[in-house]
Amino acid sequence: MGTRKKVHAYVRVKPTDDFAHEMIQYGDDNKTIDIHLKKDTRRGVVNNQQTDWSFKLDGVLHDASQDLVYETVAKDVVSQAFNGYNGTIMCYGQTGAGKTYTMTGATENYKHRGILPRALQQIFKMIEERPTHAITVRVSYLEIYNESLFDLLSTLPYVGPSVTPMTVVENTQGVFIKGLSVHLTSQEEDAFSLLFEGETNRIIASHAMNKNSSRSHCIFTIYMEAHSRTLSDEKYITSKINLVDLAGSERLGKSGSEGRVLKEATYINKSLSFLEQAIIALGDQKRDHIPFRQCKLTHALKDSLGGNCNMVLVTNIYGEAAQLEETLSSLRFASRMKLVTTEPVINEKYDAERMVKNLEKELALLKQELAIHDSLANRTLVNYDPMDEIQIAEINSQVRRYLEGTLDEIDIINLRQIQEVFNQFRVVLSQQEQEVESALRRKYTLIDKNDFAAISAVQKAGLVDVDGHLVGEPDGQGFGLGVAPFSTTPGKKSKSKKTFKEQFRPSTPPCKSVAFEDFKNERGSEINRIFKENKSILNERRKRASETTQRINAIKREIDMTKEALNFQKSLREKQGEYENKGLMIIDEEEFLLILKLKDLKKQYRTEYQDLRDLRAEIQYCQHLVDQCRHRLLTEFDIWYNESFFIPEDLQVALKPGGSIRPGMMPLSRIVSLGEDDQDKFSELQQTMLPEGPDSVSFYNAKVKTEQKHNYLKTMMGLQQANRK
């Protein structure tokens, strides 16, 4: 069990020109914030109104840059995740106080990026610094809007919308969201693309307090799994980091929300109220029941709130006098959160495959110890391995001779041999029963005496008389009737299927699967041919690799058997006495031949293993080519499909080479045809010209790709609407 530790709570003050210096003051330790209110004189002489509050937190971030916020709040949490500890970073506060800016930052500007993109950068940088571990990273992006769960990455083409609604599920491993897609990311740019994809799908609205107010709670989760490359230990560690951007609490009188925005605000305030109730219950040591299931937010964060993780809260507040009531409420929440304790432990799991390999090594050592024990006990060589077909056949022969009386007894060697002797007794008995039944069937017609229906049928057929005597046997010959398929009936000629280009343009687009087959035969025929050729080569290399692996395993088994025989010869030589001639050890011919055989086998093993490594490299390269061809085939099909069935014919001229470019993007054909040298030059130019240096390349690349994709989708939707009109 891990040691219990307090939740870390920080407060970040939104910069403003109208800061209330007389009402909000910071302590010298930069961890205390004091609030002072003037007494309301309208309450009369007797006035017990509280006017002063002091809040002790882990840090006050006033006029702090995004770099300082990340270093203070999140860096240690991300580092601990590489040691197997879960982490949660949550931004809480009033609407418009800067929660989304703190968590995500301004995606248009690399310098102003928030905790989330910086965490992704730190993770991939630390992976590069740990070559001794194989670390995989996966991400998911969940949105909780009006007490409903949504996958912000469901718009990706290979995911698609979920048929069944997502639900929060608990099991022995913890809490997870059933139906939420989890995406493998192998590089920093891919992770940024997923982040920006999710950000574009978030629900926002405008009100008096914030022009771009988040109307939902969002949880971006990073899952990590680390296996050691150097140690043979079957244990590996897993961890996850929840980065939570809560929707802001609102006073409806100040925000002026109406209609849909008012409904959203009601759900937001309700879920935040339930969150506060859960925090109060967690801070009370006498409470047994924690109301996690009151809303989807607290249920999804059950592991994070007081569970197995390092928890950090960032409370965002205003520094203006007009927002002092909401500021006090947010600081009270932060104080309550500091009373909550968590119990982070290292998440260790066991690799079943590696565990089997370690057990096999241990088994081999135990066999060697048994061999030494047998040698010391002057026993003949005993084989403890599973019996092969030759040994099983020999035991079967011994059992048959024992039953026939030609063998007086069967020598007992080990437990495995005893078990096989009994098994062969069962086999011989079963075979004898089958032989007797076959002999009877050749001579007689066997019918169950209790099967009256069969007896009656045989009598009606005239095969036996009333007394049951045999009359005759059918020859068993005959013929069958069937129905010829429609395509083989004479006089019918199959009509050739017209392609889409030969037909008039349909009023409704055809099924994509049908159109795809037509596309592969027409415009995409060349790339489809290349795809099939690459796939054929890939399958052939895989087959050769499989055959090579089988040969390697066979050679390895023969090496092991030769080693055992050689060790046996050495033990015999040691027992009989060793002979030397001019300082050289004299060995017999059999041991010499075994040594030569072992040498040849090892040479074969090394040659085959090198061939296998080369084949694996070829397979990896062929797989890359197949993936490239598949991606290009599908991409060009999407363009062809949209141009053929959605874009009006009078606009298709603009899409041809030499025509005008689509609004919002460069034609994909131009991008595909960009030469490698030009791409390399562009990448170098981009790295040198970006103001923030090479570290920002992945950030901007992902941003540009996401914007191009959404501009393309927006353009296509507009063209589809124009086509309908």
What would you note in describing this structure?
This protein is an alpha+beta fold and 725 residues long. It contains 19 helices and 21 strands. It has helices at residues 66-73, 75-81, 99-103, 115-128, 188-200, 252-255, 259-283, 296-300, 324-338, 352-376, 389-404, 415-443, 452-461, 512-521, 525-576, 589-645, 668-672, 676-689, 697-724, and strands at residues 5-6, 8-13, 24-26, 32-36, 52-56, 59-62, 87-93, 133-145, 148-151, 167-171, 174-178, 183-185, 204-205, 213-214, 217-228, 235-245, 310-317, 341-342, 347-350, 579-581, 584-586. The strands form 6 sheets. Strands 2, 6, 7, 8, 9, 12, 15, 16, 17 and 19 form a 10-stranded mixed beta sheet that branches. The radius of gyration is 38 Å and the shape is elongated. It starts with a strand and ends with a helix. 23% of the residues are buried. Residues 472-503 and 660-679 have low confidence and may be disordered. Interacts with HYDIN. Belongs to the TRAFAC class myosin-kinesin ATPase superfamily. Kinesin family. GO terms for molecular function: ATP binding; microtubule binding; microtubule motor activity.
What characterizes the major β-sheet? 10 strands, mixed
Shape: elongated
> Structural class, from helix and strand content?
alpha+beta
Low-confidence stretches: 472-503, 660-679
Q: How much of the polypeptide forms β-strand, as a percent range?
A: 15-25%
**Through-space gap between termini:** 66 Å
Mean pLDDT: 78
Residues in helix, %: 40-55%
The total of helices stands at 19
Number of strands: 21
Rg, nearest Å: 38 Å
